[in-house]
Amino acid sequence: MTLLDREVVFLMLQFLNEANEAKYKDTVHKLEKDSGYFFNMRYFEDCVNNGEWDEADSYLSGFCKVDESRYSTKIFFEIRKQKYFEALGRHDYARAVEILQKDLKVFSTIDEERFKEMTLLLSLGNFRCVGYFFCD
């Protein structure tokens, strides 16, 4: 896009943010993501703090790819790993398997051993007790 296009998108984002209406919030974040011009760190941080892992992953993917750098790989891995752990914590094993196959499989080529360990967590009754002597 040209400089003029960037300026127009930025003005649109500014206008929608200043309108301060809830109905525009989704539009603002979609435009940020789709244009790739403005990464709203506060929005991303809110997604992470609120456990909105799918939205955090989706929003971040508008700005970088999983394998773009070691930093992008790390943050995507951490987001998806947390989503997996939360599914395990809820004993939602079907969802955990889905996350493992769909979201975490891409990391198996980067760290095969860690991927195997994460897969083994499915077989534990309480994955939080790994490495501890006294667990119920």
Structure in words:
The protein is mainly alpha-helical and 136 residues long. It has a domain at 57-122. Helices cover 66% and strands 0% of the residues. The chain has seven helices and no strands. It has helices at residues 3-19, 22-35, 41-49, 53-61, 70-89, 93-104, 112-120. The longest helix is centred in the middle third of the chain and has 20 residues, at 70-89. The radius of gyration is 19 Å and the shape is elongated. The model is unreliable at 132-136 (pLDDT under 50). It comes from Prunus yedoensis var. nudiflora. Keywords: Repeat, WD repeat.
Radius of gyration: 19 Å
Q: Spans of 5+ residues with little confidence (pLDDT < 50)?
A: 132-136
**Number of helices, counting only DSSP H or I runs of 4 residues or more:** 7
Order of helices and strands: HHHHHHH
Shape: elongated
User: Major sheet, described briefly?
Assistant: none
- Total strands: the figure is 0
Distance between the termini: 58 Å
Q: What oligomeric state is this?
A: single chain
User: Which percent band covers the strand fraction?
Assistant: under 5%
Return the structural class: mainly alpha
User: Helix coverage percent of residues?
Assistant: 55-70%
Mean pLDDT over the residues = 87
Helices and strands in order:
Elements (H helix, E strand, L loop, with lengths): L2 H17 L2 H14 L5 H9 L3 H9 L8 H20 L3 H12 L7 H9 L16
Helix pairs in contact: 1-2, 3-4, 4-5, 5-6
